[in-house]
Amino acid sequence: MNKRSRTIPILIYLSEDEKIILDEKCKASRLKSRSAFIRHLILYGFVYDIDYEHLREHNTLLSRIGSNINQITKRMNATGRVYDNDVKEIKELMKEVWQLQKSMASKQPSKKQ
Q1: Average pLDDT of span 40-60
Q2: Do residues 22 and 34 touch, judged by C-beta distance below 8 A?
Q3: How many alpha carbons fall within 13 Å on the CB side of residue 34?
Q4: N- to C-terminal Cα distance for the chain?
Q5: Residues 11-48: pLDDT tens digits?
């Protein structure tokens, strides 16, 4: 009989996609086996629980801004004219986009160990 130092087997079930990802990551790790890769993850890996709620808010605001810009563009195309108020509104909307970008960047999760 084989004298193993690790005597407790663990069975897991994966979807086909998860198995493909596992195989790719095992291959990229250059560890000798899938078992070695999984043990390495257990001993040295990290699990991050990241809240992306701010991204949902960001996407909602960007969608609203995009709708406003589309309405202005339709009006410009329909009339064949560019109005100063429309240009001013687009500039304000673009300023809002940049503010959202800055806000989003400041809310990015930092990697802590």
Answers
A1: 82
A2: yes
A3: 9
A4: 41
A5: 999 999 999 999 999 999 989 999 999 999 999 988 77
| String of DSSP letters for 80-111 | S---HHHHHHHHHHHHHHHHHHHHHHHTSPP-
The 8-class DSSP code of residue 32 comes to S
Residue type, 17: D
Spatial distance between the Cα atoms of 14 and 39, rounded to a whole number of angstroms: 17
Tokens of 36: 């070695």
Q: How far apart are CA 7 and CA 40, in angstroms?
A: 17
Contact 69, 89 (CB under 8 A): no
SS3 call for 56: helix
Name the DSSP class of 112.
-
CA separation for the pair 57, 60 (Å, rounded) = 5
Picking from 23, 50, 48, 49, the residue whose alpha carbon sits closest to that of residue 38 is 23
Q: Dig out the tokens for 69 from the structure.
A: 């810009």
The pTM for the full model equals: 0.44
